[in-house]
Amino acid sequence: MPASGCPALRSSTPDSGAISSPIRGGAGEDIGVICALSGTVVVMKACYVTSLDAAEWIDNCAVGDLPDPALAPGACRIRVTRSSLNHHDIWTLRGVSSQPIVPPQILGCDAVGIIEGYGEGASTPYPVGTRVIVYSGRSCGKCDACRFGTPERCRNVGMLSEQPHQGAFAELLDVPTSALIALPDSVSDDMAACLPTAYLTAYRMLFERASVHPGMSVLVQGATGGVASAAILLAKRAGATVVATSRTEEGRQFARELGADAAAPAAKGELPSALAGVGCSDGVDVVIETVGEATWEYSLRSVRPGGTVVVAGATTGGNPPSRLNRVFWFQLAIHGSTGGTPQDLARLVQLVAHGGFAPRIDTVVPLSDIRSGFERLGAGAQHGKIVVAIGAS
Q: The domain that contains 59 carries what CATH number?
């Protein structure tokens, strides 16, 4: 153990209010008290919002040392090993959030790591040292939706990286013990880091909102994105016929490699023939839409009468022409979808553990080089998830 008494962490001179509250470690050590007595302040490496004033959104963040926050009573401390990038992080850097953005706000929605200790009064569902994935959703716990078992419908729903919750792009993360799910040995940290946002969103879109089952047909817009690539894998796993769109031939080939039965550009007149080629000349049963303005018109024209369009994102803009005449005339169902439940996440973990599918990873970048990952995601150049390596897995 380093002289400061704080395992594997850097330290600096004390700062007012920066000393951690007591943490119960694996050997019963009161790590926070040890740090306080040694006259040091624990700091952690993190990627965080520095301002919202830069000309380019990517310049609104930095990687550096931040004080280790005080551990709230009842919480669990995780040493983060892996996270992954999501468009939510880019929207935050652009100043778009459901909550006020207060620098230095730590980014990151997905967290995988190792339990390092528990706060005072915390339940201990797993031993210290257990590998876990973190459910990123947060709710108020007080409204009717929360009290009656549907917290995903809470009007005050939030997630990691939205105030007041710290994000996952940090060496340490404190979360409620109810957010922890133990990882089987057969699920690597890299694979697990893909699940809490993108794959969970796709799972809920397909199976909770659209009730996809064998024999149905599904169109996935924007095949190379995290949610879209997850939707292709999961829909094929469920026995559906899948058509995907991408603006590039490289992206369309990627969709075919994931298992899509056909792939075409959304906006060049080739989509109708691609649909007809797999027996869907009258349209598909379900459209998975996360692109927004660039594909919305084609989504409405590609779904069969009485079919369903599920929307969980709008990366190219959120205000396309609504085409209400088409919606009511063809009796289309438009469903919004956000995230999923802890139970859904646990099912995804088990699917991966038993070989049901393997999340598609585009690349793994270290936290110190997260900017390159942001650049790749912002340009739409990724094919699958971009994983962020934060600590040793």
A: 3.90.180.10
Which residue, among 324, 166, 296, 333, has the nearest Cα to 222 in the 3D structure?
A: 296
Q: Are residues 106 and 220 in the same domain?
A: no
- The closest alpha carbon to 23, from 8, 33, 12, 38, belongs to 33
Q: Does 190 lie in the same domain as 271?
A: no
Preceding amide of 164 cis, omega within 30 = yes
> At 20, phi and psi to the nearest 5?
-70, 150
Measured from the Cβ of residue 5, the count of other Cβ atoms closer than 10 Å reads 20
Residues 6+ positions from 197 with CB-CB distance below 8 Å: 84, 86, 88, 109, 110, 136, 159, 226, 339
Element of type H or E holding 335:
strand 333-336
Residue 87 tokens, joined = 């468009």
Are 47 and 127 found together in one domain? yes
> Are 213 and 275 in a shared domain?
yes
Cis preceding-peptide flag for 359 (omega within 30 of 0)? no
Give the span between the Cα atoms of 220 and 13, in whole angstroms.
52
Beta-carbon count within 10 A of 67 CB = 17
pTM for the whole structure: 0.88
Residues 276 and 177 in one domain: no
pLDDT (tens digit per residue) in 197-228: 999 999 999 999 999 999 999 999 999 999 99
Domain total in the chain = 2
Phi, psi for residue 299 in degrees, rounded to 5: -65, -45
